[in-house]
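User: Putative glutathione S-transferase. Structure?
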Amino acid sequence: MAIAQFGKETSSRGEFVRQPNRFTDRITADGSSGRRPEAGRYRLIVSLACPWAHRALIVRGLLGLTEVISLGVVDPIRDERGWRFTLDPENRDPVLGIEFLSEAYLASDPEYAGRVTVPALIDTVSGTVVSNDYPQITLDLSTEWREFHAPGSPDLYPVPLRAEIDALIESIFHNVNNGVYKAGFATGQAAYEKAYLALFAELDRLSARLERSRFLVGDQITEVDIRLFTTLVRFDAVYHGHFKCNREKLSEMPVLWAYARDLFQTPGFGSTVDFDHIKRHYYVTHPKINPTGVVPVGPDPAGWSVPHGRS
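Assistant: Predicted structure:
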């Protein structure tokens, strides 16, 4: 069997099994978690390459929390020491004073030996990680930080629609968001084909749904649209070739391509996409998959600005 990119997260059958999130504390409006929302106290660390972090970046912006929760961006090239703050002066995060995100992880748990991931929500007072629980971070930004939301900001997780949103989130996570990784990191043919088939079956179902409505749950953007978008926007640039998800390109799936462009052209979405970071991260930091480290020039991002025709 081939050597896995992430050996600790690969089963004996060659299946990629994503590690659980280690830090799952929450910041709650009523303080029941032991932490309350507080302007200026917390710092969101993201990679512009990472779809899980990209969600939090979009939600933070849409809700008007950019002046409330500060932002740190790591270098897209992750070396053996993990995510690096080499984009900042003196190669240190200017607020946390650390060179590697792993320093905050180890300050929180000196025995931590797992993979250091983004997004990470950091308490700037203690320098420790509050959460790397990416599914919960965005939901809490919508529900627990309401006192700091900008006037007129969208309700991304409306109470009457939560059951429908949650059901979609579950299937999209397993088959699409994580599905591309299960295909790309598989080290066995059967594991790869299982993930590949589940991915495209789910994309077909979503395409049929989106023929009937502008967004996944009616005519408003919700949390589940953001979660799907961050995978779709990486599809042709990375997942189609690098992860062997190649039945079709996104640009060859008319409904999903128009839907993705609709979101991309919505304020707060396209401005957060950095195709350079995305391509350099995947093609350079997965040497078991792309040993040459050569980064493809295409595809041409101009297509994302073509009118989408959805309303």
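The longest strand covers residues 42-46. The domain at 159-305 is CATH 1.20.1050.10 (Glutathione S-transferase Yfyf (Class Pi); Chain A, domain 2).
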